[in-house]
Write a structure and sequence with these properties.
The structure is a single chain. This protein is an alpha/beta fold. It folds into 2 domains: about 30-50 and about 310-430, Lyase, Ornithine Decarboxylase, Chain A, domain 1 (Beta Barrel), CATH 2.40.37.10; about 55-310, TIM Barrel (Alpha-Beta Barrel). It has helices spanning about 40-45, 55-70, 85-95, 105-115, 130-140, 150-160, 190-200, 225-245, 270, 275-290, 305-310, 400-405, 430-435, and strands spanning about 30-35, 35, 50-55, 75-80, 100, 120-125, 140-145, 165-170, 185, 205-210, 250, 300, 310-325, 330-335, 350, 360-365, 375-380, 390-395, 415, 425. Strands 3, 13, 14, 15, 16, 17, 18, 19 and 20 form a 9-stranded mixed beta sheet that branches. Helix 4 links the parallel strand 5 (about 100) and strand 6 (about 120-125). Helix 2 (about 55-70) packs parallel to helix 10 (about 275-290), helix 5 (about 130-140) crosses helix 6 (about 150-160) and helix 8 (about 225-245) runs parallel beside helix 10 (about 275-290). It is globular and about 95 Å long. The structure holds pyridoxal-5'-phosphate. Pyridoxal-5'-phosphate binds next to helix 11.
């Protein structure tokens, strides 16, 4: 039989060769995670599957907290639920001593349902329904107010509770990092924050107790935290002086980077991202410089991704191999942007589950969705992958299992490797009833004549 003619093509290989650091980011294979063979995760829980490590979460937390508390005597940490609010993850961090930092009524209820007392919850965020404020004040939670309308809402809630309640304010400021995060809280620079305090100081229902800020996300420059601490301490002094109010806590939010690779960065994260200690130094050293020991308030950090991102992986499977008309090698894998919200801004580390030989080429990893935007990796430097190859994407612990969507496909299981090496399922894969359960189909729509 005559062979089919395939037009030849030449494809320039432009990435993946040695760069000046002598490494190729996306090259490597991994046969296990903490000693558990990759195949065991997919055999037990299906593919794709998220994997989290109890050990890494505890280690990362302890590293950060012990360094922070060794420098600043009244160091506190509060777990940012939005970063990863799986019950098992929050419970590990609460066991470690972190309180809960929540930004919605749902997250508040979740923290309470896990057993966190209300007075161990920090309630942040730009929108807090009235009922949830009533609950939070009744429970004695630390509530940080975002805007003037929320001050009025908080007064209404306090009236319902029937007592004067303590609040904090969220502030924003220029820390030298642009674009500035100015949409949350009251601005320090134009006196917005000071005026908010003035307003609260005249309130019969509210009493100011703390100042909170969260200056941005994946901050690359520790100096921004120095600026934040200086400006917040200055504001604290001004408030204490003018209103004779004692501020009992400062809360510098989160924003420390993880070792993920931001899109558009040339350097590998091990080089581009400063160690977390540098960020803690910026906060703690500035506090020690600015404050006298008798005025130390409690100081909270709400570090999210820097604790949990590197504790997570996503294992996915190659379902099909395709060459695009321009010759680009591509693969369809069973995890897509529905599970990987963070793929919009990270180039994840891509590893395969075995050593494979053959010419490496820049390959595209497409997800399983019937959507053009479903691209998990635009250019992964990979050898030829047979169907069935497992692909391990990391770091995955932050923001994916909270921002994932139920879109087109079910959300998969999440497994946790426990400290003793046991493997536990901490969230099962979704089923049809999970999605149709809350739906109602009116009677007249129940019959089809197809
Ligand atoms: C108020 C607040 N605190 C803490 C965090 C956690 O931030 P990260 O995960 O960057 O440390 C966030 C995230 O956006 C936040 O909005």
């Amino acid at each position: 039989m005559k062979k089919e003619y395939i037009k030849p093509y030449i494809k320039r290989q432009s990435a993946g060769v040695m760069n000046k650091f002598g490494v190729t980011y996306n090259k490597g294979h991994r046969e296990d995670i903490e000693g558990i063979p990759i195949g065991r995760f997919t055999d037990e829980f299906g593919s794709p599957v998220f994997v989290l490590s109890e050990k890494v979460i505890r280690e990362r937390y302890r590293k950060i907290y012990s360094y922070f508390s060794s420098k600043y005597p009244k160091a506190k940490m509060s777990w940012s639920y939005k970063t990863n609010y799986l019950g098992a993850v929050c419970s590990i961090l609460h066991q470690e001593g972190e309180t809960a930092e929540v930004v919605s009524d749902f997250e508040y209820e979740k923290a309470r349902s896990l057993g966190v007392p209300g007075n161990r919850i920090i309630y942040n965020g730009p929108y807090k329904p009235l009922d949830s404020l009533v609950t939070a004040f009744t429970d004695g939670a630390m509530v940080n107010l975002d805007n003037f309308d929320e001050i009025i809402k908080a007064e209404e809630a306090a009236k319902k509770v029937g007592k004067k309640v303590s609040v904090g304010i969220r502030v924003n400021m220029d820390t030298g990092v642009y674009p500035q995060w100015s949409r949350f809280g009251f601005p320090i620079e134009n006196n917005g924050a000071f005026n908010a305090v003035k307003r609260i100081s005249h309130s019969e229902h509210l009493h100011l107790e703390g100042i909170h800020c969260h200056i941005g996300t994946f901050m690359m420059d520790p100096n921004a935290y120095k600026e934040a601490v200086k400006k917040v301490v200055q504001l604290m002094r001004k408030i204490e002086h003018e209103f004779e109010i004692t501020i009992s806590y400062l809360d510098f939010g989160g924003g420390f980077p993880s070792n993920n690779k931001l899109k558009g960065t040339y350097l590998p994260p091990e080089v581009a991202v400063q160690p977390v200690e540098n960020f803690i130094d910026a906060v703690a050293d500035t506090l020690l410089d600015e404050l006298a020991p008798d005025e130390y308030p409690d100081v909270y950090l709400e570090t999210g991704r820097a604790i949990v991102d590197e504790a997570g992986w996503l294992i996915s499977t190659v379902d099909a191999v395709k060459r695009l008309p321009d010759g680009t090698k591509s693969y369809i894998i069973d995890a897509g942007v529905n599970l990987l919200y963070t793929s919009a801004w990270y180039n994840y580390k891509v590893e395969i589950d075995r050593e494979l030989h053959g010419a490496y080429e820049n390959s595209i990893l497409y997800g399983p969705l019937c959507m053009n935007i479903d691209v998990v990796a635009e250019s992964a430097f990979l050898p030829p992958l047979p169907k069935g190859t497992r692909i391990i994407l990391s770091p995955m612990g932050a923001y994916n299992v909270t921002q994932w969507m139920q879109f087109i496909r079910y959300r998969p299981a999440v497994a946790m490797i426990m400290e003793d090496g046991k493997l536990e399922q901490i969230r099962r894969a979704e089923k049809l009833e999970d999605i149709t359960g809350p739906e109602f189909v009116p009677d007249k729509l129940r019959k089809f004549n197809l």
